[in-house]
Amino acid sequence: MTVAINSSIPDMPAASPGQAGRIVQLDGLRAFAVLSVFFHHALKVPLWIGVDLFFVLSGFLITGILLERKACGQSYFGYFYARRARRILPPYLLLLAVSSLLFGVEWVRHWPWYAFFLTNLGLSLGSIGHDSLNVLWSLAVEEQFYLLWPFVVLLCPIRVLAWIAGALIVAAPAMRAIVTPWFSSSWPVYYLTPFRMDLLAAGALLAIAITRDRHALEPYYGAAAALALAALAALVCLHLSYPRLRAAHTPLSNAALYSISVALCTSIVVIALRGRGMVQRVLTHPVLVYIGSVSYSIYLVHVSMLYALWPLHWNRYLTTLLALAATLTYATVSWYGFERRLVLNAARQTAASAMRAST
């Protein structure tokens, strides 16, 4: 990246989003995100914003990688898409194999959705495989966004890129409101990429800001904390007053509800990036960092574990604990079996590229 972020700066991350070194507190944040999604599905509690937090984190980290590759002038598209394939495909294919063993191969009848990362479109059309694979919609959103975003990052000056990200943040809620009459339910608005790109763009805007000035977010920490509290309070009040608001399917609910989530998740990432005091101690706790490291496989398989246990009709809390234990075991085996090696190899390649660029 054009501006490196040094570990000697206490008020900013130990590494920029594109550097080989991980921003440890973001691993802790991933843990909160994936556990939120898990308990949302397991206990039917309204913690759906965990997915939204993943989107903001993805936009931040991926845009950082792209900006760094652009700045160093080395392999760009080949590096980026090879890295994505190594990280995404092996656990993805393993999940399809596990789902086939547990629930049969119904998904094969809809194979194009899974082969081309179009499960969000399949869900919107009501044409999809076993429900345990529905979690793949969010992965489809990311992969569709990243088909185009690398070209935008490469071709646009960073100032223009910031304006584009800002425009996407504004455009997405407007589109959600405009298209509401087109659909019979709110699910297509929730699943389809054009209507969720404000989250990815918000993360991208944070990466752009840090690239231009490593202290760019520091003056906004207080505002981010206040905005996070206000957005959280708004979501809680809306849920208590209108528990079916997500399903209301009105232009206002579709536009406003997810925009509040954008504000909350973006503010949380800003707070995490500052990483001081109690926030830093919590987010860098070894247990949370580990869960964050294996969060991809946790996210992929957790619904499969729940669907495997639900037919037993055990106590819901016992079922939740067993599903969590099985999910963590699966993710750990997957991580040490092959994911960790792939991630470390990618990190070594990134470090080697950075070394060559600096000599």
From TrEMBL:
Keyword set includes Magnesium: no
- What Pfam families is this protein classified in? Acyl_transf_3
Q: Which GO terms describe its molecular function?
A: acyltransferase activity, transferring groups other than amino-acyl groups
Q: Name one GO biological process term.
A: lipopolysaccharide biosynthetic process
Name the keywords, alphabetized.
Membrane, Transmembrane, Transmembrane helix
Residues annotated as domain Acyltransferase: 24-334
Task: Supply one GO CC term from the record.
Answer: membrane
Q: Does the keyword Transmembrane apply?
A: yes
Task: Report TM segments.
Answer: 45-67, 88-105, 111-133, 145-169, 189-208, 220-243, 255-275, 287-310, 316-338
PANTHER family named among the record's database cross-references: ACETYLTRANSFERASE, ACYL_TRANSF_3 DOMAIN-CONTAINING PROTEIN
- What's the protein here called? O-antigen acetylase
What is the scientific name of the source organism?
Burkholderia singularis
